[in-house]
Amino acid sequence: MFAKIWLIPEYGQVLAMRGVDDSTGEPELRWFMEPPDFGVCSFALKFADTEDGWAAAEKAFADADEAAAEKTARSMMNGAWVSPEPVLTQSQPSPRP
Fold this sequence. Notes:
This protein is of the alpha+beta class. It has helices at residues 51-63, 66-78; strands at residues 3-8, 12-20, 27-33, 41-46. The chain has a domain at 8-13 and 30-35 and 45-79. β2 and β3 form a beta hairpin.
């Protein structure tokens, strides 16, 4: 099995799909949903391309259930998903010709 789907009344269909990032080859668990009045929304949990990373991706997929689907959908809609390690960037002025 590579995908699981649930119907969450408030958010519509929620799908969890085990896969691989096309650009990096890293394992991922990608969540999709299509809430009423929106298009398809998605985000991915990425894992390292190591034995442990692949095992963690498999476990995350195995642990995905209806409660996780509802919590994930709620987080996506509330904008509550935050990277565990914030990425800080420093602005640089753009060169002028």
